[in-house]
Amino acid sequence: MYSIVQRCVLPQLSQEKRQELLVQAHLVSLAELFEAIVDPRGRHGLRYDLPFLLACLVAATLSQCDSSEAVSQWCADHQDLLRASFGPRMFLTPSGSLYRWLLPQLDAQAFEQVIGTWVQATLQAPADEPLALDGKTVRGVRTEEQAAPHLLSFCMHQSQETLLQVRVSEKTNEIPVAHKLLATLPIAHRVCTADALHTQTEFMRVIHELGADTVLTVKDNQPTLRSDLLTYFADPHAHVQTATTTDRHRGRVEVRTIRVSTEMNDYLASNWPYIRQVAHLTRTVTCKGQTTSENVYLITSTLSSLI
């Protein structure tokens, strides 16, 4: 069996060297950074080194390839590009069966760490762009033996860059995972948004100590706080600031009106010491002659005008 000429980065890096490579992520390409992932294969008869395989996988996936066979076909169609990027090689077309065998053997957490480290090192988003915590259960991959995995992502609002995505174990939930990982992300001076699950005093404290702010929705998991906000904003004499925006797109009109107040800060301080504003957001959508309306209540630790 043929083997590729071993590159200077082989044999595999030590654990210490892998960590050093992650620290220097801003100085290397993503393909080079893949050296930090342990190759589960034996050394004999390798045609493709792991960084090459993973770089091809990422490039093909970004090109809308959604199966291992499609990745293999992408490689076959782009041999000139691969040769220009990786240099002369005897083999440039890994098979779909190779990917189907290889991927389940890899350490998924190590792969996510490498991708997240590289994205953070090459981040294009401005330093003050808001960050969203987004939890999602991937229903489509559930099997009879295994429940659908639940993923927690940390992504930028505007640039859509995903700083990190991790799987949440069935033995826990998003809250402790988010608390642990936030300290590893560049969130200082940003506003972090999250769904109602994270509307907790402890979550606001963690964000505050990291030098960032929060905007959180208030739902039935905080019944007392929600009741207080409902009562306050139902008062026609409540002291609020108001702003309205209107979006029109292909016959769909969405009007958003937000009312913001600092008047409840002292009242809520004993249980929610990091709240600086509360808000009531109304979304009214008109489409095809039908109009729907949604009311959302928010708390935030920022004093920015109208959130």
Relevant terms:
single chain, 23% strand, elongated, nine-stranded mixed beta sheet, alpha+beta, 307 residues, 11 helices
Written description of the protein model:
With 307 residues, this protein is of the alpha+beta class. Among the domains are: 15-119, no CATH class; 218-307, no CATH class. It has eleven helices and nine strands. The chain has helices at 15-23, 30-33, 50-62, 68-77, 79-86, 96-102, 108-121, 174-182, 201-209, 223-234, 265-268, and strands at 131-137, 150-156, 162-168, 191-194, 213-217, 241-249, 252-261, 277-287, 290-300. It has a nine-stranded mixed beta sheet. Strand 8 and strand 9 form a beta hairpin. Helix 3 crosses helix 4 (68-77) and helix 4 packs across helix 6.
Q: Name the structural class.
A: alpha+beta
Alpha-carbon Rg, integer: 24 Å
Strand sequence of the main sheet, in spatial order?
3-2-1-4-5-9-8-7-6
Kindly state the percentage of residues in helix.
25-40%
**Strand composition percent:** 15-25%
- Poorly predicted ranges: 1-10
| N to C succession of SSEs | HHHHHHHEEEHEHEHEEHEE
Mean pLDDT, to the nearest integer, reads 87
Number of helices: 11
Q: What does the overall shape look like?
A: elongated
Q: What is this entry, summarized?
A:
Among the domains are: 15-119, no CATH class; 218-307, no CATH class. Helices cover 32% and strands 23% of the residues. It is built from 11 helices and 9 strands.
